[in-house]
Give the backbone structure.
Amino acid sequence: MTSVLIVTSSFISIVAPIPYIFGVVAGRTKPRVVSWLTFALMGCLVGAAALSDGQYPAAALALCAVLTGGLVAILGLKHGDRRFTSLDVACQAGALFGLALWVALDSPEACLVTQILVSIVAMVPTLLHCWRRPDEEKLITYALYALGGAVAVFAAVVGGAWGITAILYPTYITVMDLALCGLIVAGSSRDRAAMVSRAVPDDVA
């Protein structure tokens, strides 16, 4: 059962960015290249930390994020936002700090917690972009990522794993991507309401 859930979660996570990738190639979706590279780097560390602790659902989910995040970043070199900000520097430094903690303390849990905290900070520009420009994001991609994370959590629970390395990362993926979905929906509703308001003559309104 656990193996089936791991495969299902991985499949969903691989499929999730396909609409986003098509949007990037078509020029409708604008990824921040450095952000996606940072997420791929953190995914490497999270996946390695989970794998070293024998938590295969979380490790598979993280390593799928590495593959898809790296691909989006490569495509974004031509079609995306190539800005490099002080926030990006801080997030990459934080990711490397998590690796240093793992080595120094021999604690994959310390590395994982650090990566999650850094990832939350790194997601701020994406959260703002989902709210400000929901038309440049892909709701289905984030919804599928959230589903993949939820399946990975379920796989860990079914396998009897309740530790930090088993639960924290897939739970974070689920919650964060649901938040992104909510911002896209709310931002789109706001934009539609504004368009309707502008289309209605003042004397009618």
User: Anything to note?
Assistant: The first helix runs from residue 2 to 15. The mean pLDDT is 85. The CA atoms of residues 151 and 178 lie 14 Å apart.
